[in-house]
């Protein structure tokens, strides 16, 4: 993904529509589902070509089962993909010996 505006990786960017301020890029991890990427950005393939340049929201697969990767096709529901809270480790441990 390439952020819109100056400084985007590779110099490729898609700005906001004329007369409209640029929308900031946000990434939302949906519980048990995809990553929703919103904002003025450009998704490019490994050769730097734009992928679906007219979209401003992308649902990216996290489960690995989508037939249309990198995009989500809803397969996470069929395969039972689940996200959970990250494992917590104590900040301090004590040696009880």
Describe this protein's structure.
By secondary structure, the protein is mostly beta strands. The protein has a single domain (1-83), classed as CDGSH iron-sulfur domain, mitoNEET-type (Ribosomal Protein L9, domain 1, 3-Layer(aba) Sandwich), CATH 3.40.5.90. Helices cover 5% and strands 16% of the residues. The chain is built from one helix and five strands, in the order βββββα. It has one helix at 75-79; strands at 2-3, 26-29, 35-38, 41-42, 57-60. It is extended and about 65 Å long.
Fold topology:
Layout: E1 2-3, E2 26-29, E3 35-38, E4 41-42, E5 57-60, H1 75-79
Antiparallel strand pairs: 1-4, 2-3, 3-5
Features:
97 residues; mainly beta; Ribosomal Protein L9, domain 1; three-stranded antiparallel sheet; two-stranded antiparallel ribbon; 1 helix
């Amino acid at each position: 993904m390439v952020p819109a505006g100056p400084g985007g990786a590779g110099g490729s960017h898609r700005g906001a529509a004329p007369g409209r301020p640029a929308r900031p890029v946000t990434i939302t991890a949906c519980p048990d589902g995809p990553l929703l990427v919103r904002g003025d950005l450009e998704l490019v393939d490994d050769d730097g070509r734009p992928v679906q340049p007219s979209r401003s929201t992308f649902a990216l697969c996290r489960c690995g089962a989508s037939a249309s990767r990198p995009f989500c096709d809803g397969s996470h529901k069929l395969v039972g993909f689940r996200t959970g809270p990250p494992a917590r480790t104590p900040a301090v441990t004590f040696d009880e010996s």
